[in-house]
Design brief:
The structure holds two protein chains of two kinds. Chain A has 16 helices and 20 strands. By secondary structure, chain A is of the alpha+beta class. In chain A, strands 8-9-10-1-11-16-12-15-13-14 form a ten-stranded mixed sheet, sandwiched between helices. A four-stranded antiparallel sheet of chain A has the order 4-5-7-6, with helices on one face. Chain B has two domains: about 70 residues, no CATH class; about 210 residues, Orthogonal Bundle (MetI-like fold). Classes of the chains: A alpha+beta, B mainly alpha. At the A-B interface, helix 7 and helix 13 of A face helix 2, helix 3, helix 5, helix 7 and helix 11 of B. Chain A: It comes from Bosea robiniae. Chain A: Belongs to the bacterial solute-binding protein 5 family. Chain A: This is Peptide/nickel transport system substrate-binding protein.
């Protein structure tokens, strides 16, 4: 006979089992019932499409970078080394025309479709198809064939040796899509993206909110946040309030005048990062006075950039030391900044126009497109008047401005100094060295608005465009940067922007690129108390 | 009444045709190249030309209008350049939000304005009367975006009673509705007041009082009902203005409505979105005015349309 204390009735047994079970559940609770980490981001503009192939806006790219992988990617924000992503390794043929990529095995799209060479072929051919109407298509036109050799090997053939191929494949537009999903969704694919990335789309109500959740089967380093919620809040002041009230963890594009409020709040901070955006006046090199490079150099000495940054931009800007700010690939560092020396500027102009230049210089500026654009342009006008130049000033609305700059008049062709102004304010944030230079300085490029033509520059750019050696190619770009800075500019360089991002204190792991792209998947949040019942 | 409504409905397509022609002409008169805006500042000319061709923007204007009209007849308002999604989808998504906001703003104006007007009519030159007058000046002179930011600063940031922006619960609606409705409170109050004062001095009110009706009955049954006709008229007229004002309020409060949809489209010359939203705005104003005409007949059976 058993001692009675060991007797366990059926009912007691059930109770005991439940107790045991619940204590096990309790022990495992810290992982399963841990507060969900929802990273909340407010952006100034709404996401327009989640189809990488047709995208062109930064807010969209910040989101879908989490959903998609590319074959290769930049290692970090320095943009000096390309590393494997979906491709494990690659080789190129002797003549530089054939690239063979070995793909990672065992990767699956969010919809279960296996990732393979066919998916790569499908995605690249899709962006090349004129019927898709991708605004990014011309980046890819050097590709003539994509062959799926076997499921793990893809071969890309280019029309001519194409040193930029890897850089093109690292662009977010080259994200690899699930062929099954694209075929299934058709035109609605932009709202139902399927990639291989660390996050997948959970919910998207346009203009309201977009939620992505962690992909449990991600093949790489898993994302840290359980989910991310992106909300478009157009008004900058409202974004700041979202952040300071604890309704958002990250507020992008904080205007300089709103930084104080974020800084003063005990729970929030401002992150200041270099930006690849530079603001400048382009100078029409096809007619006087700026046809002469000496005059273009001269007015670069007429401007007090420090004063512009301090007085107009609340100190948030950098005096440029070259045409490439930090965050641009192949930056040739440390060109001497143009000294503010109005006397020197006056003398240099007098060398070219001994009797003075008496025609008015036509200045154009957009209003509201770049930080304080109109105020900056007016100040520049003042500096030019101060060295004895006559000026005419015109302010444009952005859409009209762009059209006028690019298509001045039907039949007159595009760009290349064919508009009526002598100088016009623009900015660029392109991080790719080749595109940034070619668009602005190649005499045959449609986007060269200044009509700039320098045989030496054309030659350097042409040589670089087929140079398969990365180091010597970057050297050529550095040479271009030096020549246009010291001898023959086509711009009156104003300032390099800085990026201002508001964050909740304790947030770590933000990876900020010069062109305002931000990687969020490794962000962690520590030490923040839950908002008090608000 | 029935034939009147039918006649009004029959003129509707003609009116919309007029609106569509006007919008189309204005859109093509204002400079700016939709294809370039769609392609983005970093696109090449080649890409821009491709987009221009894809959307038929390289066709002569009358042809473009013809194609547009044919599409409208099939219930297709075209696709957005920006999102590539159909405009009808965008309108279906954003219009309910705008309607919700506009109706809420109207309610704010009515619920605060009319009682305030009645009160100051019954107590002329009192404190309420002076309050309404100063409120009217404020309502006219404070821009909507400023009022919105001040309300947000006080009630969302300092007091934390409501969320600053977004849409979801009724608490999200409070600030945008107040911002939209408050400037109209004084206008409604003053209109109510002057009409009430006029009617309170009429003979039939004296008769009603003389025959011993209670104060409440005289004020609400007899005076208010007669004073409400101009209020309903103003409601109809202001509805259009509120719809327009919603564009600013929606931007400040990140409210996902049609006004913001339209404003963002104008910035980037997203022409099909602009055309589509303006058509729907025009249609709503026509509809609300027709509705107001019908309401007249219900409030005051003496009004007939022949």
């Amino acid at each position: 006979m058993q001692p009675s204390f060991l007797k366990i009735t059926r009912r007691e047994g059930l109770g005991l089992g439940l107790a045991l079970l619940s204590s096990i559940m309790y022990l495992s609770a810290p992982t399963s019932a841990r507060a969900e980490f929802n990273l909340r981001i407010v952006q100034g503009t709404d996401v327009d499409t989640l189809d990488p192939a047709v995208s062109r806006s930064t807010p969209s790219q910040i989101v879908f970078n989490n959903i998609f992988n590319t074959l290769v990617r930049w290692k970090d924000t320095k943009l000096d080394e390309i590393v494997p992503d979906l491709a494990e390794s690659w080789t190129k043929s002797e003549d530089g025309l054939r690239w063979t990529f070995k793909l990672r095995r065992g990767v699956k799209f969010h919809d279960g479709t296996p990732f393979d060479a066919e998916a790569v072929k499908f995605s690249l051919e899709r962006i090349l198809d004129p019927a898709l109407g991708s605004p990014n298509r011309s980046l890819f036109t050097s590709i003539s064939e994509v062959n799926a050799k076997n499921p793990e090997t893809v071969e890309i053939v280019t029309k001519e040796p194409s040193p930029m191929l890897l850089e093109v494949l690292a662009e977010e537009y080259a994200g690899i899509n699930s062929p099954t999903a694209v075929k299934k969704s058709g035109r609605a694919y932009a709202r139902n993206p399927v990639g291989t990335g660390p996050y997948m789309l959970s919910e998207w109500v346009p203009a309201q909110q977009l939620v992505i959740k962690r992909n449990p089967d991600y093949a790489g380093t898993p994302g840290k946040p359980d989910k991310m919620t992106f909300r478009p809040v157009p008004e900058a002041e409202a974004r700041v309030i979202e952040l300071t009230t604890g309704n958002a963890d990250i507020a992008l594009n904080i205007p300089p005048e709103a930084t104080e409020k974020v800084r003063r709040n005990a729970a929030t901070a401002i992150v200041t990062e270099p930006s690849s955006f530079q603001i400048f006046f382009e100078l029409n090199t096809t007619k006087p006075p700026f046809a002469d490079p000496r005059v273009r150099l001269a007015i670069n000495h007429a401007i007090d950039r420090k004063a512009i940054i301090e007085k107009i931009l609340n100190g948030y800007g950098r005096v440029p030391d070259g045409i490439f700010p930090r965050g641009v690939q192949g930056r040739a560092p440390g060109q001497p900044p143009y000294a503010y020396d109005p006397d020197k500027a006056r003398k240099m102009i007098a060398e070219v126009f001994p009797g003075g230049y008496n025609e008015p210089i036509v200045i154009w500026t957009p209003a509201g497109r770049y930080a304080k654009d109109k105020a900056v342009a007016e100040t520049v006008q003042g500096y030019l008047n101060a060295i004895g130049l006559k000026t005419e000033f015109k302010v444009w609305e952005w859409a009209t401005y762009q059209k006028t700059l690019y298509r001045p008049e039907t039949g007159k062709g595009t760009g290349r100094g064919s508009n009526d102004a002598n100088m016009w304010l623009l900015g660029t944030g392109v991080t790719n060295a080749d595109w940034r230079l070619r668009r602005k300085f190649s005499s045959t490029d449609d986007s060269n608005l200044t009509g700039y033509k320098q045989p030496r520059i054309d030659e350097l750019l042409a040589k670089a465009s087929v140079d398969m050696n990365y180091t010597s190619r970057m050297q050529a770009y550095a040479d271009v940067q030096k020549i246009v800075w010291n001898e023959a500019p086509n711009s009156l360089v104003l300032f390099d922007q800085v990026q201002l991002i508001g964050i909740a204190k304790g947030l770590k792991g933000l990876e900020v690129y010069g062109d305002e792209i931000i990687k969020l998947d490794q962000v962690t949040k520590l030490g923040r108390l839950p908002p008090s019942g608000r | 009444m029935g034939t009147y409504i039918i006649r009004r409905l029959l003129t509707l397509p003609l009116m919309l045709l007029g609106v569509s022609v006007a919008v189309f002409i204005i859109l093509h008169l204002i400079p700016g190249d939709p294809a370039r805006m769609a392609a983005g500042p970093d696109a090449t000319e080649q890409d821009v030309a491709q987009i221009r061709a894809n959307y038929g923007l390289d066709q002569p204007l009358p042809v473009q209008y013809g194609i547009y009209l044919k599409k409208i007849a099939q219930g297709d308002l075209g696709d957005s350049f920006q999102t590539l999604a159909p405009v009808t989808e965008g309108i279906a998504r954003t219009f309910p939000a705008t309607l919700e906001l506009t109706v809420a703003g109207m309610l704010v104006a009515l619920v605060l304005g009319v009682p305030l007007g009645i009160y100051s009519a019954l107590n002329p030159r009192g404190a309420a009367d002076r309050f309404v007058t100063s409120l009217a000046v404020l309502g006219i002179s404070i821009p909507g975006f400023f009022l919105g930011l001040v309300l947000m600063l006080v009630f969302a940031s300092m007091l934390g009673w409501v969320p600053p922006t977004g849409r979801g619960t009724w608490r999200h609606l409070v600030l945008p509705a107040l911002t939209l409705g408050l400037p109209y409170v004084a206008a409604f109050a003053r209109l109510t007041r002057s009409n009430m004062l006029d009617i309170l001095s009429e003979d039939f009110i004296r008769t009603a009082r003389a025959k011993g009706l209670s104060w409440t009955k005289v004020t609400y049954r007899h005076a208010m009902r007669n004073a409400s006709i101009p209020i309903v008229t103003m409601l109809g007229l202001d509805f259009g203005r509120l719809l327009g004002g919603a564009a600013i309020v929606e931007t400040v409060f990140a409210w996902p409505g049609m006004g913001r949809y339209m404003v963002e489209a104008i910035m980037i010359r997203d022409i099909y979105v602009i055309q589509g939203t303006i058509l729907v705005f025009a249609l709503s104003v026509v509809a609300i005015n027709l509705f107001v005409d019908v309401i007249y007949g219900i409030i005051d059976p003496r009004i007939t349309y022949s």
